[in-house]
Protein: TauD/TfdA-like domain-containing protein
Amino acid sequence: MLVSPKGSNGQYHAPPNQARDIPFHTDNGDIVSLFTISKSESGGSFYLADSTAVFKELKMRMPKLAQALVDDWTIVSPSASEGFEVRPLVFPQHRSGRVLINCSRARITGTPSAPRPASLPALTKIQREAIDALHTLAMSHAIEIQLQPGDMIFFNNLTMMHARDGFVDNGAEGMKRHLLRLILRNEEAAYELPPQLAETWEALYEHNVEEEKFPVKKELFTWACSH
Structure:
């Protein structure tokens, strides 16, 4: 089993805990909600793109790369018993009229504080090209949102990808980027999931309400809940 990654101080420094750009991706979970507590001095624009529109254009323009996303990938997964899972990133036929995407770069390519384990197969050239193309086309379809303190945003994480620009914080009060994220699910209206995602979703949602924690103060993401 893979060991959960740690940073130099024993903690995982996820992409959301860093000020660099975050390319287009999806989180785990149905509905992503963000509440802006404070914003950065500059930068940090938030982007949303429709997964179906992005994938349809990719399939039309670069069908080999589109097919690569539908084929199996080896992805780090803390909810899996082996520490990884093998599945597609894109599920184009699962829901009529909609393309479902579950694609986290941190779990595919690794990050500076959590490199992709050497025990996993190396990414192929076409796989790297495919996830880069997914980001590039998502940006061409994206809407840009400048989140202000007090703003809230909710979106369907299964059918929309999101990204963020890098940002610069300021030491002054209220000039440090701080967003509160909740991963929600409406059982009555929830999409049926591809079976390859069932174990991850169960680990995310199947717990007692008493175990939930609302981190209003800034803290590092856990590896299991990051992206």
Remarks:
- Helices lie at 51-61, 63-70, 105-108, 125-141, 198-205.
- Residues 21-188 form a domain with the Double-stranded beta-helix fold (CATH 3.60.130.10).
- Residues 98 and 179 are 29 Å apart (CA to CA).
